[in-house]
Each structure stands twice: as structure tokens, then as C-alpha cells.
Design a protein that fits this description.
mainly alpha
Length: 73
């Protein structure tokens, strides 16, 4: 029994290590993307003459799509 529990423990430890490495890699990729975004965001300049719209028109999101017409011959 001791050997099987050791193997299971080793397997669980390896799984946790792989999960931790995957999470570390995901964080590193996210941080790299954020750094790139911050770099590009620094180049943006607001336009004081741009029109400001205080509402967003979402009517297209809620409108129904007309059903296709099927011609009868």
C-alpha cells in the first residue's frame, strides 16, 4: 500500500506543479500583453474637438432579423 500511495502522491504533486507552471505562464503572457497595451496607450492623444456622445445606440442588438422570404411558384 505504501508504494501506491507514494505513486499517487507523486502524481498529484506533478499535476499540481504542471498546473502552477501553466498559471505562471498565463500570468506572464497576460503581463506581457498589458505592458504592450500600456506602451501603445501612451501614444494616444485625446481630441478636444471630437464630438462626445453620451448614449450608445443598441437598437440593432434588439431588433428582429426578418425571416427570409420563400417564394411560392
Amino acid at each position: 500500500m505504501a508504494r501506491s500511495s507514494r505513486k499517487r502522491l507523486a502524481s498529484e504533486t506533478a499535476s499540481l506543479a504542471a498546473l502552477a507552471e501553466a498559471e505562471r505562464q498565463a500570468r506572464a503572457e497576460k503581463n506581457a500583453r498589458l505592458k504592450d497595451l500600456r506602451t501603445h496607450a501612451g501614444w494616444l492623444v485625446s481630441d478636444p474637438d471630437a464630438p462626445f456622445r453620451d448614449e450608445i445606440d443598441c437598437s440593432l442588438l434588439f431588433s428582429e432579423i426578418p425571416a427570409p422570404k420563400v417564394g411560392l411558384a
